[in-house]
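Reply to dn_fold:

You asked what the input looked like. This is it:
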Amino acid sequence: MKIEQYISQLLYRHQCVTVPGFGAFLTEIQSAQLHESTHSFYPPKKVISFNAQVKNNDGLLANHIAQIEKTNYESAVASIESEVVIWNSILEVNQKFALKNIGELSLNSEKNLVFTPSENVNYLKESFGLNSFVSPAVKREQYQQQAEVFYQEPPVAKEVQTDKTPVIELATESKKGRGYLKYAAILVLALSATGSIGFKLYQDHVAEQTLLVETQVQKKVQNKIQEATFMIDNAIPAVTLTVREEKFAYHIMAGAFRNEANAENIYNNLIQSGFKARRIAPNKHGLFPVLYGSYATLEEARAALDTIHQSNPDAWLLVKNL
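and this is what came back:
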Protein backbone atom coordinates (compact mmCIF):
# COMPACT_ATOMS: atom_id res chain seq x y z
CA MET A 1 0.00 0.00 0.00
CA LYS A 2 1.34 3.43 -0.98
CA ILE A 3 0.36 5.48 2.05
CA GLU A 4 1.96 8.71 0.80
CA GLN A 5 -1.22 9.50 -1.13
CA TYR A 6 -3.21 9.38 2.12
CA ILE A 7 -0.61 11.54 3.88
CA SER A 8 -0.89 14.05 1.03
CA GLN A 9 -4.69 14.15 1.39
CA LEU A 10 -4.50 14.80 5.13
CA LEU A 11 -1.94 17.61 4.77
CA TYR A 12 -4.64 19.78 3.15
CA ARG A 13 -6.75 19.63 6.31
CA HIS A 14 -4.36 19.06 9.24
CA GLN A 15 -1.22 20.69 10.62
CA CYS A 16 0.33 17.38 11.71
CA VAL A 17 0.17 13.93 10.08
CA THR A 18 2.01 11.25 12.05
CA VAL A 19 3.29 7.99 10.54
CA PRO A 20 3.40 5.66 13.57
CA GLY A 21 6.89 4.34 14.24
CA PHE A 22 8.53 6.64 11.67
CA GLY A 23 7.87 10.36 12.26
CA ALA A 24 5.48 13.26 11.70
CA PHE A 25 4.98 15.64 8.78
CA LEU A 26 4.24 19.17 10.03
CA THR A 27 2.84 22.16 8.13
CA GLU A 28 3.25 25.90 8.74
CA ILE A 29 1.53 28.70 6.80
CA GLN A 30 3.93 31.05 5.01
CA SER A 31 2.76 34.48 3.83
CA ALA A 32 2.97 35.69 0.23
CA GLN A 33 6.49 36.68 -0.78
CA LEU A 34 8.08 39.09 -3.23
CA HIS A 35 11.68 38.63 -4.42
CA GLU A 36 12.74 42.08 -5.54
CA SER A 37 15.94 40.89 -7.20
CA THR A 38 14.07 38.57 -9.59
CA HIS A 39 10.71 40.44 -9.58
CA SER A 40 9.02 37.15 -8.63
CA PHE A 41 5.75 36.88 -6.71
CA TYR A 42 4.81 33.77 -4.66
CA PRO A 43 1.33 33.17 -3.13
CA PRO A 44 0.80 32.05 0.51
CA LYS A 45 1.47 28.37 1.07
CA LYS A 46 1.93 25.61 3.62
CA VAL A 47 5.58 24.79 4.28
CA ILE A 48 6.12 21.10 5.13
CA SER A 49 8.72 19.92 7.65
CA PHE A 50 9.51 16.55 9.24
CA ASN A 51 10.06 15.57 12.88
CA ALA A 52 11.48 12.10 13.42
CA GLN A 53 10.93 12.34 17.21
CA VAL A 54 7.11 12.25 16.96
CA LYS A 55 6.28 8.59 16.36
CA ASN A 56 3.27 7.85 18.58
CA ASN A 57 0.11 6.72 16.82
CA ASP A 58 -2.51 9.48 17.10
CA GLY A 59 -5.04 7.51 15.03
CA LEU A 60 -5.40 10.15 12.32
CA LEU A 61 -3.66 8.33 9.44
CA ALA A 62 -4.98 4.87 10.39
CA ASN A 63 -8.60 6.09 10.65
CA HIS A 64 -8.32 7.85 7.29
CA ILE A 65 -6.92 4.74 5.58
CA ALA A 66 -9.58 2.52 7.16
CA GLN A 67 -12.31 4.84 5.93
CA ILE A 68 -10.98 5.10 2.37
CA GLU A 69 -10.03 1.43 2.01
CA LYS A 70 -13.30 0.23 3.62
CA THR A 71 -11.42 -1.83 6.20
CA ASN A 72 -11.06 -1.87 9.98
CA TYR A 73 -8.69 0.16 12.11
CA GLU A 74 -6.41 -2.75 13.01
CA SER A 75 -5.81 -3.62 9.34
CA ALA A 76 -4.95 -0.03 8.58
CA VAL A 77 -2.39 0.06 11.42
CA ALA A 78 -0.83 -3.16 10.11
CA SER A 79 -0.55 -1.68 6.60
CA ILE A 80 1.22 1.39 7.97
CA GLU A 81 3.70 -0.77 9.90
CA SER A 82 4.50 -2.76 6.74
CA GLU A 83 5.08 0.42 4.75
CA VAL A 84 7.41 1.78 7.44
CA VAL A 85 9.51 -1.39 7.24
CA ILE A 86 9.83 -0.88 3.47
CA TRP A 87 10.85 2.76 3.93
CA ASN A 88 13.56 1.89 6.44
CA SER A 89 14.90 -0.82 4.12
CA ILE A 90 15.13 1.62 1.21
CA LEU A 91 16.97 4.13 3.40
CA GLU A 92 19.52 1.52 4.43
CA VAL A 93 20.24 0.60 0.82
CA ASN A 94 19.84 3.85 -1.15
CA GLN A 95 20.30 6.36 1.69
CA LYS A 96 17.26 8.26 0.39
CA PHE A 97 13.80 7.91 -1.15
CA ALA A 98 11.04 10.26 -2.36
CA LEU A 99 7.40 10.53 -1.33
CA LYS A 100 5.27 11.80 -4.22
CA ASN A 101 4.03 15.40 -3.77
CA ILE A 102 5.50 15.47 -0.24
CA GLY A 103 9.29 15.54 -0.44
CA GLU A 104 12.50 13.55 -0.21
CA LEU A 105 13.89 11.79 2.87
CA SER A 106 17.59 11.00 3.13
CA LEU A 107 20.22 10.02 5.67
CA ASN A 108 23.10 12.35 6.44
CA SER A 109 26.58 11.34 7.53
CA GLU A 110 25.36 10.94 11.12
CA LYS A 111 22.52 8.63 10.03
CA ASN A 112 19.89 11.23 10.85
CA LEU A 113 16.85 11.78 8.63
CA VAL A 114 16.92 14.92 6.50
CA PHE A 115 13.72 16.07 4.78
CA THR A 116 13.54 18.25 1.64
CA PRO A 117 9.94 19.38 0.92
CA SER A 118 8.45 19.21 -2.57
CA GLU A 119 7.56 22.47 -4.34
CA ASN A 120 5.03 20.88 -6.70
CA VAL A 121 1.95 21.12 -4.46
CA ASN A 122 0.60 23.98 -2.35
CA TYR A 123 -1.37 22.43 0.54
CA LEU A 124 -2.97 25.75 1.57
CA LYS A 125 -6.58 25.48 0.39
CA GLU A 126 -7.08 29.27 0.46
CA SER A 127 -4.38 29.65 -2.23
CA PHE A 128 -6.09 27.32 -4.69
CA GLY A 129 -5.65 28.67 -8.24
CA LEU A 130 -2.88 31.13 -7.29
CA ASN A 131 0.43 30.58 -9.04
CA SER A 132 3.81 32.27 -8.80
CA PHE A 133 4.71 34.70 -11.58
CA VAL A 134 7.43 37.10 -12.66
CA SER A 135 6.62 40.73 -13.42
CA PRO A 136 9.21 43.02 -15.06
CA ALA A 137 10.17 46.19 -13.26
CA VAL A 138 7.97 49.20 -13.96
CA LYS A 139 9.88 51.99 -15.70
CA ARG A 140 8.79 55.44 -14.67
CA GLU A 141 9.71 58.57 -16.65
CA GLN A 142 9.90 61.87 -14.86
CA TYR A 143 8.71 64.95 -16.65
CA GLN A 144 9.88 68.38 -15.59
CA GLN A 145 7.19 70.97 -15.94
CA GLN A 146 8.49 74.31 -17.11
CA ALA A 147 6.52 77.38 -16.15
CA GLU A 148 6.65 80.53 -18.20
CA VAL A 149 7.18 83.66 -16.18
CA PHE A 150 5.60 86.80 -17.45
CA TYR A 151 7.06 90.02 -16.29
CA GLN A 152 5.49 93.39 -16.63
CA GLU A 153 7.38 96.54 -15.92
CA PRO A 154 5.77 98.76 -13.31
CA PRO A 155 3.96 101.81 -14.65
CA VAL A 156 5.84 105.13 -14.76
CA ALA A 157 4.12 108.31 -13.69
CA LYS A 158 4.45 111.26 -16.06
CA GLU A 159 2.89 114.63 -16.23
CA VAL A 160 0.69 115.56 -19.18
CA GLN A 161 0.35 119.19 -19.90
CA THR A 162 -3.13 120.48 -20.84
CA ASP A 163 -4.56 123.93 -21.28
CA LYS A 164 -6.19 123.98 -17.86
CA THR A 165 -4.71 121.63 -15.27
CA PRO A 166 -1.74 119.28 -15.45
CA VAL A 167 -2.79 115.61 -15.29
CA ILE A 168 -0.67 112.78 -13.93
CA GLU A 169 -0.97 109.73 -16.19
CA LEU A 170 0.34 106.17 -15.61
CA ALA A 171 2.28 105.10 -18.67
CA THR A 172 3.71 101.69 -19.46
CA GLU A 173 6.25 100.55 -21.97
CA SER A 174 3.57 100.25 -24.61
CA LYS A 175 0.50 102.35 -23.86
CA LYS A 176 -1.56 101.07 -26.76
CA GLY A 177 -0.82 97.37 -26.28
CA ARG A 178 -1.09 97.20 -22.44
CA GLY A 179 -3.39 100.04 -21.50
CA TYR A 180 -6.32 97.65 -20.92
CA LEU A 181 -4.46 95.95 -18.08
CA LYS A 182 -4.78 99.06 -15.97
CA TYR A 183 -8.56 99.07 -16.18
CA ALA A 184 -8.80 95.31 -15.63
CA ALA A 185 -6.75 95.53 -12.43
CA ILE A 186 -8.93 98.36 -11.08
CA LEU A 187 -12.08 96.35 -11.88
CA VAL A 188 -10.76 93.22 -10.15
CA LEU A 189 -9.83 95.17 -7.02
CA ALA A 190 -13.22 96.75 -6.88
CA LEU A 191 -15.07 93.48 -7.29
CA SER A 192 -12.85 91.79 -4.68
CA ALA A 193 -13.51 94.47 -2.09
CA THR A 194 -17.26 94.47 -2.76
CA GLY A 195 -17.45 90.66 -2.75
CA SER A 196 -15.54 90.34 0.54
CA ILE A 197 -17.79 92.84 2.32
CA GLY A 198 -20.94 91.27 0.90
CA PHE A 199 -19.90 87.74 1.75
CA LYS A 200 -19.07 88.75 5.35
CA LEU A 201 -22.50 90.33 5.77
CA TYR A 202 -24.12 87.19 4.33
CA GLN A 203 -22.23 84.94 6.76
CA ASP A 204 -23.26 87.08 9.74
CA HIS A 205 -26.90 86.93 8.64
CA VAL A 206 -26.85 83.13 8.23
CA ALA A 207 -25.22 82.63 11.64
CA GLU A 208 -27.81 84.89 13.29
CA GLN A 209 -30.75 83.03 11.69
CA THR A 210 -29.25 79.63 12.56
CA LEU A 211 -28.83 80.60 16.23
CA LEU A 212 -32.41 81.83 16.34
CA VAL A 213 -33.81 78.59 14.91
CA GLU A 214 -31.70 76.41 17.21
CA THR A 215 -32.88 78.38 20.25
CA GLN A 216 -36.53 77.92 19.29
CA VAL A 217 -36.04 74.19 18.68
CA GLN A 218 -34.35 73.71 22.06
CA LYS A 219 -37.21 75.46 23.83
CA LYS A 220 -39.78 73.20 22.14
CA VAL A 221 -37.78 70.08 23.01
CA GLN A 222 -37.54 71.10 26.69
CA ASN A 223 -41.28 71.78 26.83
CA LYS A 224 -42.06 68.36 25.31
CA ILE A 225 -39.78 66.64 27.81
CA GLN A 226 -41.45 68.38 30.77
CA GLU A 227 -44.94 67.51 29.52
CA ALA A 228 -44.16 63.87 28.58
CA THR A 229 -45.47 60.99 30.68
CA PHE A 230 -43.70 57.69 30.28
CA MET A 231 -45.92 54.64 30.58
CA ILE A 232 -45.18 50.97 29.79
CA ASP A 233 -48.40 49.13 28.94
CA ASN A 234 -46.92 45.76 28.00
CA ALA A 235 -43.72 44.37 29.48
CA ILE A 236 -41.14 43.02 27.07
CA PRO A 237 -41.30 39.20 27.09
CA ALA A 238 -38.31 37.32 28.39
CA VAL A 239 -35.76 36.28 25.80
CA THR A 240 -34.61 32.69 25.82
CA LEU A 241 -31.05 32.19 24.62
CA THR A 242 -29.96 28.86 23.23
CA VAL A 243 -26.30 28.11 23.85
CA ARG A 244 -24.84 26.04 21.06
CA GLU A 245 -22.67 23.22 22.31
CA GLU A 246 -19.09 23.48 21.06
CA LYS A 247 -17.87 20.57 18.98
CA PHE A 248 -14.40 19.10 19.48
CA ALA A 249 -12.34 17.24 16.92
CA TYR A 250 -9.89 15.33 19.15
CA HIS A 251 -11.06 12.50 21.44
CA ILE A 252 -9.29 9.86 23.54
CA MET A 253 -10.92 6.47 23.04
CA ALA A 254 -11.22 4.23 26.12
CA GLY A 255 -12.70 1.35 24.13
CA ALA A 256 -15.59 0.05 22.03
CA PHE A 257 -17.76 -2.70 23.53
CA ARG A 258 -20.23 -5.16 22.06
CA ASN A 259 -22.26 -5.20 25.27
CA GLU A 260 -23.87 -1.84 26.03
CA ALA A 261 -23.96 -2.65 29.75
CA ASN A 262 -20.17 -3.00 29.78
CA ALA A 263 -19.85 0.34 27.98
CA GLU A 264 -22.10 1.96 30.61
CA ASN A 265 -20.04 0.51 33.47
CA ILE A 266 -16.78 1.81 31.97
CA TYR A 267 -18.40 5.20 31.43
CA ASN A 268 -19.55 5.41 35.09
CA ASN A 269 -16.10 4.38 36.33
CA LEU A 270 -14.43 7.10 34.28
CA ILE A 271 -16.87 9.71 35.58
CA GLN A 272 -16.14 8.65 39.17
CA SER A 273 -12.40 8.88 38.43
CA GLY A 274 -12.79 12.54 37.45
CA PHE A 275 -12.76 12.25 33.65
CA LYS A 276 -15.21 14.15 31.45
CA ALA A 277 -16.18 10.85 29.86
CA ARG A 278 -18.65 10.52 27.01
CA ARG A 279 -20.58 7.83 25.23
CA ILE A 280 -21.15 8.26 21.51
CA ALA A 281 -23.45 6.53 19.05
CA PRO A 282 -22.65 2.94 18.08
CA ASN A 283 -20.30 2.61 15.11
CA LYS A 284 -20.95 0.73 11.88
CA HIS A 285 -19.74 -2.51 13.49
CA GLY A 286 -22.39 -2.32 16.23
CA LEU A 287 -19.90 -1.46 18.98
CA PHE A 288 -20.59 1.06 21.77
CA PRO A 289 -17.62 3.51 22.05
CA VAL A 290 -16.65 5.20 25.32
CA LEU A 291 -14.39 8.29 25.44
CA TYR A 292 -12.15 9.53 28.21
CA GLY A 293 -12.88 13.05 27.00
CA SER A 294 -12.83 15.47 24.05
CA TYR A 295 -10.36 18.29 23.32
CA ALA A 296 -10.30 21.38 21.14
CA THR A 297 -6.64 21.17 20.05
CA LEU A 298 -4.26 18.38 19.12
CA GLU A 299 -1.74 19.55 21.73
CA GLU A 300 -4.26 19.19 24.59
CA ALA A 301 -5.31 15.75 23.37
CA ARG A 302 -1.72 14.48 23.12
CA ALA A 303 -0.88 15.74 26.62
CA ALA A 304 -3.93 13.98 28.07
CA LEU A 305 -3.14 10.81 26.08
CA ASP A 306 0.39 10.66 27.54
CA THR A 307 -1.09 10.78 31.05
CA ILE A 308 -3.78 8.19 30.31
CA HIS A 309 -1.22 5.80 28.76
CA GLN A 310 0.34 5.39 32.21
CA SER A 311 -2.76 3.49 33.35
CA ASN A 312 -4.21 2.32 30.01
CA PRO A 313 -1.63 1.74 27.22
CA ASP A 314 -4.43 0.68 24.85
CA ALA A 315 -6.09 4.12 24.79
CA TRP A 316 -5.80 5.88 21.43
CA LEU A 317 -6.62 9.20 19.81
CA LEU A 318 -9.70 9.59 17.59
CA VAL A 319 -9.78 12.59 15.21
CA LYS A 320 -13.36 13.32 14.22
CA ASN A 321 -15.90 16.11 14.66
CA LEU A 322 -18.45 14.91 17.22
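The first helix runs from residue 4 to 11.
Hope that clears it up.
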